[in-house]
Amino acid sequence: MIRIVTTPRLESLEYASRTAHEHVREVAGSANEAFGEHVRELYAVTDRAERAEATTSEVAEILARTRKELSAAREELLLKDIEIRRLLEEPAEGATLTVLLHYGEPHTTYGSREDAYADTATHGRPLDHVWRPCGERPAAEFEWRCEPFIYDAESNGFRRAFMPAPEPVGGAA
Predict the structure, then answer these.
(1) How far apart are CA 101 and CA 108, in angstroms?
(2) Which helix (H) or strand (E) holds 97?
(3) Between the CA of residue 38 and those of 33, 45, 49, 54, what are the distances in Å?
(4) What is the reported pLDDT for 149?
C-alpha cells in the first residue's frame, strides 16, 4: 500500500512532534525539580534524625549521672537518718551532740562538733575558719554557730553544755 503524504500533513506531523518534545521537556524538568526537592527533604529529615539521636544519647548520659547522684544522696540521707535515730534512741549520761545554728535558728544536728564544723564548709565557711567562744552574745548575731548539748538522764533529754550565768533579778544579790 502506497500512501501519499502531502506537505500540510507533514507540517502537521512536525508541529505535533515539536509540541510533544516540548511537553516531554517540561515534564522532565518538573520531574527533576520534584526529585531535587525530595532529595533536599531527605537530607533535612536525615539531619534532624541524627541530631535527635545525638540529643537522646546526651539526655541518657545526663539521666544516668543524675540517677547515680540521686542514689548517693539517698544513701547519705539514710546514713544520717540512722545516725540521728541512734543518737535519739540510745543516749547515755553525758552523751553530747552539736546543733548547728544559722542566725540563731537550728539548722542541723551532728554527733560531734567536728562534723558540724566540717559541714559549715558546704555553706560557705572556709575549712580553716577559727571558731571562737561566743560568750554571752545572742546566737542570732552569728551567721553560723555550733552549740553543744549534753544528755541529762534526770530530765530525759538534752541540755545546753554551757549555761549562761544567771543574772540577779531586780538588783537582788
Answers:
(1) 7
(2) strand 96-102
(3) 9, 10, 16, 24
(4) 77
Retrieve residue 59's grid coordinates.
Answer: 539526655
Whether 21 shows a pLDDT value over 70: the answer reads yes
The predicted pLDDT at position 33 comes to: 94
b/e per residue 26-45 (b: at least 16 CB within 10 A): eeeeeeeeeeeeeeeeeeee
Compute and round to an integer the Cα radius of gyration of the chain.
Answer: 44
Burial status of residue 113 (CB atoms within 10 A of its CB: 0-12, 13-18, 19 or more): middle
pTM score, two decimals?
0.38
| Contacts (Cβ under 8 Å, ≥6 apart) of 131 | 117, 146
> What are 110's three cell numbers?
551532728
